Amino acid sequence: MRNELIKLLDNAYAPYSNFRVGSILECKDGKIFKGVNVENASYGASICAERSSIVSAISNGYKKGDFKKIYIINSSDKLGPPCFLCRQVFTEFFDRDMEVVLMDMAGHEEVYKVSELCTVPFNSDNLK
Question: How far apart (Å, rounded) are the C-alpha atoms in residues 124 and 128?
Answer without folding.
Answer: 7
